[in-house]
Amino acid sequence: MTAQTALDKPVRLLSLDFFRGATVAAMILVNNPGDWGHIYAPLEHAEWNGCTPTDLIFPFFLFIVGVSIAYAMGGKKADPSSHGKTIVKALKRASILFGLGLFLSLFPKVFTAPLEAFQQVRIPGVLQRIAVVFLISAIIFLKNTEKNIFKILLAILAVYWALMTFIPVPGVGYANLEKETNLGAWLDRSILTEAHLWKSAKTWDPEGILSTLPAIATGLFGILVGVYLKRKDVDAATKISWLFCTGCAAVALGLLWDLQFPINKSLWTSSFVLYTGGLATMILSLCYWIIDVQQYNRFTKPFVVYGVNAITVFFLSGLIPRIFRMITVKGSNGSDMNLQSWLYSGFAASFSPINASLAWAISFILFWLVILWVMYNKKIIIKV
């Protein structure tokens, strides 16, 4: 093995795969209740301001994207001649992720009414935001020192705060942070039009254009944590101590900023970036200490199998229910119903409405766990 090859070989953290897997499993859990009208409060997003456990999931994933960039591209950063090739690869990966997100928005109407599907497709989305954050964070990582990355992170948080709280919204006349009248909502409607926004609102989008800016800051937060974790001149105990204290400080700053710029997942406010980034740092540092340093890892496999095929299972878990809803079967009373409703009727008959909804979501998690377990044992890892 040449020195360059050794540099380019990415280092894998079991704790990072564990954290990623737990996060993706939680994503699937909250995205697939049996009945959207019956959900336990912690499994719902905050109505607007505030933060529930569900609101932590997406920022945790973007934070993990940042940590992964630091590990996967660290060797390439040291070789400027490889930056162009690395950025092209990142662009290809981001394009695939963005395309998969658009496909989920188009499916199944793209096959039955393609013209209408493209006229009404939601352009923002979860996979689309992951793609943009990954690409821009990767470029910033390759082209800047850690000190500059930190400065860029702070600048993004400050600029976004100023834009949202000081710039008068056209047509409204003043700056505000309400659902339909904030600057981000106005920008989304102006550029994307209501036809291409979140169907539940149509006037604003939780993965909109302007709020992607602080989402990039979440990715940069993860990069800085990943760079520090990779340092070979710092012992593990010192790393854990500093990271945990840094996480606590970020949470405290986020809560303090919340008094003026509320913690809000849909707006991805600067206080939300600090609060969720701090919590993610604390959790990852604990996982690192327990799993990678102390080697207590027997419990990790169910989550690791999710973590190594995270994007694949997230995409398929969004696609399969739509396919189920396209398949018509005969119900017990002889009437036609879609396959998902038919399957869920067994849960509805056995549990109370809210527990039936939760039991369905848990069963969906276990269904994918079996598939991912087999894939992991056969060393099948689909890289997007």
Please give a structural write-up.
The chain has 384 residues and is mostly helical. The chain folds into 2 domains: 128 residues, no CATH class; 251 residues, no CATH class. The protein contains 16 helices and 2 strands. It has a two-stranded antiparallel ribbon with strand order 1-2. Strand 1 and strand 2 form a beta hairpin. It is globular, with a radius of gyration of 22 Å. The N terminus is likely disordered. Keywords: Membrane, Transmembrane, Transmembrane helix.
The overall strand count is 2
Write down the Rg. 22 Å
Strand content: under 5%
Low-confidence stretches: 1-9
What does the average pLDDT come to? Answer: 93
The share of residues in helices is 55-70%
How are the strands of the biggest sheet laid out side by side? 1-2
Element pattern in H and E: HHHHHHHHHHHHHHEEHH
Largest sheet: 2 strands, antiparallel
Q: Which of globular, elongated, flat, extended, rod-shaped describes the shape?
A: globular
Distance between the termini: 26 Å
Write down the domain tally.
Answer: 2
Secondary structural class: mainly alpha
SS element count, helices: 16
